[in-house]
Amino acid sequence: MRRKVDVLIVGSGASGSALAAHLSEAGKSVLVVEGGKTRRTTDLVSSALNARRVKWTGTPVVETGTHPIGHPFNSAFGLGGAGMHHYAVWPRLHPEDFTMRHDHGVGLDWPFRYDALAPFYDRVQAEAGVSGDAEQELWRPPGAPYPMGPVPVFAQGRVLARGFEKLGRRVAPLPLAVTSQPYKGRPVCLWDGWCDSGCPIGALANPLTVYLPRAKAHGAHVLTEHVVTAVLTDATGRRATGVQAKGPDGVVVTLQADVVILAAFTVENARVLLASRSDAHPSGIGNAHDRVGRGITSHTAGLVYGLFDEPTDPYLGAFGGQLLNQDHYGKRSHRDAAAFGSYQWMLAQAVRPNDLLGIATARADLIGPELDTFMRRAAHGFAGMTAVVEDLPVDSNRVTLQADRDRHGVPIAQVEHTMDPASVALWQASLEDGKAVLTAAGAREVWTGPPGRMHIMGGTSMGTDPTRSVTDAYGRVHGLDNLYVAGPSLFPTSGGVNPTFTAIALAVRTADHLIQQGKATS
Predict the structure, then answer these.
(1) What is the pTM of this model?
(2) Residues contacting 228, CB < 8 A, separation 6+
(3) Rg of the chain in Å (alpha carbons)
(4) Residue 66 covered by a domain
(5) What is the mean pLDDT of the chain?
(6) Angstrom distances, CA of residue 246 to CA of 8, 175, 230, 370
């Protein structure tokens, strides 16, 4: 049992660590509860094995539907959460992402517009450090220039850029939360392509390099290896009183707080709310209108590859890539009328010979001598780029609880996910676009990969209507005074960009709201 704190945050990932830093710096007593083990930068090793170790090792998630979400690949368990293996690609959502229902009668609207989030994008990019060139990034919404210059472009990036240029199109430096120059005590990146294994030198912005040190310096406490099994409320059901958690010794503890924030991974946020049943909340907290868990979205990876006769040095750079193109971000900017939504291209990801997103897995159909021949050619002239393809929210795509329980006594989560036909058509359109670019670049061979799953969002969507959403515009759960949700699970729509930057901006916005709320009541 611990003393009651001002704020208890469930999860130590990108959003949870940012909340902890800002709230503790404002004088709040903060406790961060993390289900996984403690992790230090010195524990990280640049290897394919370590890339697996920083991913999900918690309770398995049952995946169903035509297009499973890929939970083990996208999530994580341990200090720093999924922020420890993210690729640090930090573009902003576009204004049109916030008004899809209003503008097109498709998807959902966010409870605010881009302008409300823009100042927080600016603050977060200064805090974490983002490399880029806002002037070259023609598609970028309004905002402050990046605090660091662009990341370097190596041979693979130059080859792919040539394809866009021959088609009369532009590319820009990919905005990366990776150091292109020394930044706030962090060294310059080595550009050796091991971002997904945790970045042991601290060049990549993650919870261990940015927000958790700030939080701890201002008195925040982190309790690891304690799995939160339920949110507790008072008899009225309108106020959260804390959480119930189980430690590594199996002992159940009650942790009390004035404010509780669920900042676990997307599926876990919904799972904990659904599992927190009581007389006041018989269907789970926040689920009076059967909205918790609904609208789970992902991004579909449009994978396009080519072999070139010239050297491409595909091992150099960051795992997220080197260059960006957002020509097809417009929701209806596609030749196929059946396609709807946004996608962007991330060009020239650093690759390894094999394993996670390696060269060999790009041709999983080859074995024996054919694979050997391919690998010898690809080590010299391989190039690839990835489309981040928007996934429309569908109500039947949802998190539910199974009858089976894990070792902590919590029902196991099941996630159903099947893409909307318009999203499938958009993914197919991205592949045709990508093949045209690789061909124009002069690739001797061009091929595409299967639909990969990138990122998981939704399930506790924010909105203005309590019958159609789970939280309000600040992440406060409808019907409760002091229970909040943070992270990509708040997203009503996925957009066509990587979600971490937006998730942190939302978290800082919520932190400001709570700080101002505290001043108003003091």
Answers:
(1) 0.97
(2) 10, 33, 35, 243, 244, 245, 264, 272
(3) 22
(4) no
(5) 96
(6) 15, 40, 10, 51
Asked whether residue 64 is assigned to any structural domain, the reply reads: no
Residue 274 lies in a domain: yes
The amino acid sitting at 285 is I
> Number of folded domains in the chain?
1
**Domain span including residue 127:** 5-59+71-521
**Position 21 in a domain:** yes
Give the C-alpha separation, 490 to 468, whole Å.
13
297-321: burial string, b at 16+ Cβ within 10 Å, e else: bbbbbbbbbbbbeeebbbbbbbbbb
Distance of CA 522 to the CA centre of its chain: 35
The answer to whether residues 225 and 35 touch, using CB atoms and an 8 Å cutoff, is: yes
Task: Average the pLDDT over 267-286 and give the result.
Answer: 97
Rounded to 5°, angle at Cα 113 from 335 and 284: 100
Q: Please, is 472 exposed, middle or buried when counting C-beta atoms within 10 Å of its C-beta (0-12, 13-18, 19+)?
A: middle
> Range with the lowest mean pLDDT among 47-51, 370-374, 483-487?
47-51
Residues contacting residue 494 through CB under 8 Å, at least 6 positions apart: 297, 298, 299, 390, 391, 393, 455, 457, 458
| CATH, residue 138 | 3.50.50.60
